[in-house]
Amino acid sequence: MDGKKLAGEKAAAYVENGMVVGLGTGSTVYWTIMKLGERVREGLRIQGVPTSRRTEELALELGIPLLDLAEVDEIDLTIDGADESDGDLNLIKGGGGALLREKLVASVSRRFIVVADESKWVASLGKFPLPVEVVPFGWELTRRQLGKLGCDPVLRMAGNEIYVTDNGNYIIDCHFGVIKDAKSLSETLNKWPGVVENGLFVNMAERIVLGYTDGSVEERLPE
Length: 223
Known about the structure:
The protein has 6 helices and 15 strands.
């Protein structure tokens, strides 16, 4: 069974008529958006706030009405994926490159639900490289500073070109191995002038919906 599809579709059940819904980015929340498109065709009335151009294009194809983030003060519910989640539901996000918009949308959401397959549930964060979005100016200096934190900082590429986010920035993927204090690391990273945002989502998720290859789905709350 496809754990991503199971989790993504299960989480779509949390969406109710009249909601403003944050639409995440990635291969698991793709299935949430597909299910919401189906429900919209059946009469569900919602408005979505996309976290990436890719999600925006998909939602429009499915007929989901969209709002720009500038048009809202609060979002009822955001559903998004994660690259890793620990038992406290601290997350690493940004493998798809949309971490800044994802965090902006999640930060103004009354509820934030994560969808993932079982492989994303980990004992401690850090095996997945932590994405850090940086301004292009002086990115080499920023990369050296990141390295002083004990990680191996690697500039993200797209083929032979530097990967550029929807916001016109670069991403440096920081290989820590283990992140012992996600909150402290996040605060340290965001103090540096060259850093726009980092992919640590700390104390933001209400629950995670996990899909398993055996066809089961489990919902977990912070421990």
